[in-house]
Each structure stands twice: as structure tokens, then as C-alpha cells.
Amino acid sequence: MIELVRPSVDLHDAWWEMVDEFAGATIHGSGYHPRDREVLADPQAFAEWVDWLGRQEHPDEPLPPERVASSHRWVLDDGRLVGTVAIRHALTPSLVAEGGHIGYAVRPAARRRGVATAALAQALGVAARRGIDPVLVTCDLTNVASARTIAACGGVLEDSRHGVLRHWIRTGATADPIGNGPIETRLARLVPVTWDDARAMVAGDRRRGWASGYPREDDLDAVRSMTSEDPDPWTPRHVVRRSDGLAVGTIGCFGPPVDGVVEVGYGLVESARGGGLMTDVLSGMVRAIEAAGLRVVAHTLPDNVPSHRVLARLGFVCEDDTPPEWLWVRQRGAGVVAPA
After folding, report:
1. Are 86 and 31 in contact (CB under 8 A)?
2. Segment 213-221 mean pLDDT
3. Cα(123)–Cα(208) distance, integer angstroms
């Protein structure tokens, strides 16, 4: 039976037996580097390392740069340690390019027995309980076995980048209700605009990490509506594109709910349009709002055909086309068709 367990000092001897079998090769999803072997040979240092692997699961744990919170698991096959899995809770630009949400490895002697497929399937369950949906899982272009494992778990190939195949898998996780923190989508992070950001935007001061053309006039209108220095769920949010870490637009709500209904507004700089980013971003926003038990509406200009298409794709219906703006209402039970 395949099961995922938290790293444990009780598996000290089994760990080093497995490491020896990898013979210096990278053990994906382990958090282990061969250069650390001499240090970790000390039982106390090993115990501290195992404890640190566990602490990485907590969002308030200080982590080195470019590290994200992760759930580390060791893979047992009928009690024998046969592999490792790491479920990363968020994506950095480098993880978007090649690392993905989930890294895993199976020791050579345990391969071709379905261990990787079973372990990845259980890792998807961990991701779902963390509210991660979908997850990005990658493998080298030449790793046919891993590509088959990912496909067997529902992976859909998006593309190949620099010799890395990038697949997305839906976990069916329920979105977290909208709150004061960032909203994570497949292609972006929706980061609340701070009071300091808002002042810089209105003043025309450029910030590192802002794309050319950002903020637009509509973005400025959104931040001018901010009335408090403390972000709330309805604060405008930077759309930070994962592929390069640049803010390319805003999305937010026109104030708090009224009779259980929230109106959303959104927009991107011209260079960020046309690649599905807006559909992805609005999908994530809708999921978060509806997870709070609210309904979502939007207004568009009659000639904004691209926005009409995005809204229709996400289950909105135009219920009033009286000028000057059309009213779009998200239908109950429509589902979110975009993999946010």
C-alpha cells in the first residue's frame, strides 16, 4: 500500500539507504542536497533538518529567498521508504517556468510499479486540502515515464519551455473566501494595492515591478476610490503576472457587497491582453467572491467585445444592454470554466 507520511527521524536509517540508491542523483521533492550529507550524518543535525522540513508547511515560517511554503511528504510502500514528494503552496516565476507545485522522486528499485502515480495522486489530495487548484506539475521533455505518470493523474499539457513539459491538473479544491490577502491563480497573483502603492500610482511615480504602461487611467480611478490605509477584501489588486513578476493591471470590487452582490472591475495593459490572462484572473476573483457566499456582476461598454467574451466564457449573462453600459450577471451554478 502506498502512503504519504510526514518526514520523521524514525526513518533515519531508511532515509540514508534510499539516498544511497539514488547514487548522487537529484532527489526531487526532498529538500535534500548531496552537499549536505556530511552535516546531516550527525543524528542531531538530521533531526533538526527533519523538523525544518515540517515547519515549511506553516505560512509564518521564515524561508530563504525564492523558497515558498511547502508540504513535504515521504512515500512508503508497505512501510518501506521509496520516495519523496513536496507540495509547494505557491509559485514563483522560476517555479512557473520549470519547478511547478509538486516535485517528486521514486527510488530506482521501486520504479515501474505504479508508485509514482499513486504518490502523485495522493499529493494532489494534499494540494486540494490546501486550496490549490489547479496545480502545475512539470517534467523534463525526455522523461517519458514521468509524463505518463502526470497524464495518468489528469495532467493537461500546456506547453514546453526550455526542455521542460508543463502540465496542469485540477484538484477540485474549494476556493478560499475572498479576504485581505493575495488571490492565487494559474497565471497571476492578485495582490492588494497598499496605501503607499496607491499614492505612488496617483503621483505618477514609477515602481520596480510595474510593466510599461502600468498604471492605466482605469487603474488610477480604482485606487483613487481607496478610503483606508488598511487593505480589505474589496481593495483594488495588482495583477502580478507569474511569468515575469510584473504588475500588468488591476482587478477589484466597487465597494463592499450590497444585498449580497459585488460588482467587479478589471483591466490589463495592452501588451498583456489576448493570451487568456484576463480570463484566468477574473476566474480566480469570481471563485473567491462566490466562496464568500456572494453574487458577482460587472458592467462593460457596449463596444468592449473582448470583455464580453471573457464574461460569457465565465458564465455571465448580459441582463441589461441599455446604454451607456451593459450589465452582466454571473449565473448561479454556472461553474468556473477557466482553470484559475
Report:
1. yes
2. 96
3. 36
